[in-house]
Structure prediction request, 655 residues.
Amino acid sequence: MFPGPQRRRPGAPCSVESSNANQIRCLILACGNTLREDDGVGPFLAHWAEERWRDDARVRVLCDHQWTPEMAEDVAQAETIVFIDCATDSAPGLVRCMAVKPAPDSTKLGMHHLDASQLLALSKHVYGAMPRTSLLLTIGAGSLELREGFSAVVQAALPEARQGLEDTVQRLLSSKTVQRA
Amino acid sequence: MSQTITIDPVTRLEGHGKITIQLNGHGEVEDAQFHVTQVRGFERFSEGRPFYEMPGLMARICGICPVSHLITSAKACEAIMSVRIPHSAAQLRRMLNLAQMIQSHALSFFYLSSPDLLLGMEADPKVRHIFGVVGAKPNLGRAGIALRRFGQHIIELLGHKRIHPGWVVPGGVTEPLSAAKRDEILAMMPEAFQSTKLALAGYKQIVDNFRPEIEVFANFPSNYLGLVNEDDSIEFTDGALRLIDGTGRIIEDGITAARSTEIIGEAVEPHSYTKFTYYKPLGYPDGCYRVGPLARLNIAKSMGTPLADAELAEFKQLAAGPVHSSFYYHHARLIDILYGIEKIEQILNDPLILDTHVRATAGVNRLEGAGQSEAPRGTLHHHYKVDENGLITWANLVIATGHNNHAMNKGVAQAARHYIKNGKFTEGILNRVEAVVRTFDPCLSCSTHAFGQMPLAMTLLSADGEVVDHVVRS
Prediction:
């Protein structure tokens, strides 16, 4: 298998360290653009998560501008996954964590970017596997203008979002490991 | 009463576009046009910027082939600097360019075109996507994703980012290759070879199912343009251009980047923001030509690598001279990929590849410079003029999709005339007309420097201009 995108600080050059993806108990997969204000909340939380679990080999953090089909193999190899993205369909600053199911087979897939349910479906169809638990953590966007930083409402929600991610990952790490086929 | 069909937007392309098909009073196709409907204008906003910023700026034109713009722009800058880059830097750039070609071709073949090839042109559009491909041929689906990751990971290892790497700079590259990265890339080779062989075998199994399409998918003699080395082997990054005619006769050879600016003209048609390039001595449109995978294989006499050479020999058996049907762009794309993997392996085994001298430095020594390379879709040119302080005063980019524009329009018309009779058409017929455009794998974002989603549309017009049908896909 090819090594996938590596653990790295969002927005910074990637490292080329080796990692055994088969040992990943929790994959944190964030997306967003730091130049589009609140859309950068995914990379921000990914950066925080990478520092938080830097020495914990059970956690792997990936972040990119968007989720693409090439990430399906990383998803398939993870025991659990937390997707992180901003949301335009929830109240600004609202932090939500919800279960994600794979998209139905009839879903038309974009080839340049996928949403969390499509990525799960692709990992299931192409690699015959997907995480036993899949969660989506979203933060409602207040503004997506062309600038760095966050709107006041999202800035105020960052502590809650960090805590939500901490609690979620800890819960996933403490849950019983399931032997995968 | 005549009619017009519009396919708007055309799907599974890089960028926005639409197709208009004009019918006469008998319901026969009178004319057809492929429109590129967006414009950006990178040439204009680069004016006033320091020339050494150009590679980084120009790479932003495209998220699929930023490496081509990066490299071609750097070469134009080096012409302004009058420097020759170190051997290791040239080899590393060559590897980066090939990695990009592999990932881009994998996207085109597996993600965009394989639904048509594996499921059929008439397949239900609801299943004509990557899920359908994976369901029908799971190994091919995995191979496509693996090849795209292979190319992207090399780009990431060398340039630190999968998209818009900034590692290529005027004068060379910013840092040498480490032994660890070299070994990591070498370790990826076996699976890349395996995936490509699987794809070639799969393509050869199904190609005979598409004989009717091969006959009418832009199947006509044309001129062809592409880079070759002095030994007539294929080249993507350096070398010089060769132009051949529809019989294979060499019209012009050894065309440097500077000479290209003199002999390539750009025509404008009112229905598209993409320009139509042509060879000036033959005029427009007689001097139009095709570029990209099909052109490269028609022009080169060898690939310079053993596995790809064997495939090229088989490819050349398809015709006595140049292979004209654009359907064979798919086949040529897979041979390009095979060559790319072999060549990367050769480059990594170059004893000087870890040399740390990877950048030449100089200031402004000329007030004009041009660069050229082979992007995945075909030849790419950047041409700049600067003032004595090195600030850009004028820039022009000639993109592969512009080179292919005339042939794409002609090919759409050919397919439309063949399939649409008495003003009647089906979804499968419209898909075939779109598929003609897909064979060229045009990058509309590059060609007009547009951005956004990538749909395309088709309109059917009557002789008096009335819209008879309009198909829009998202």
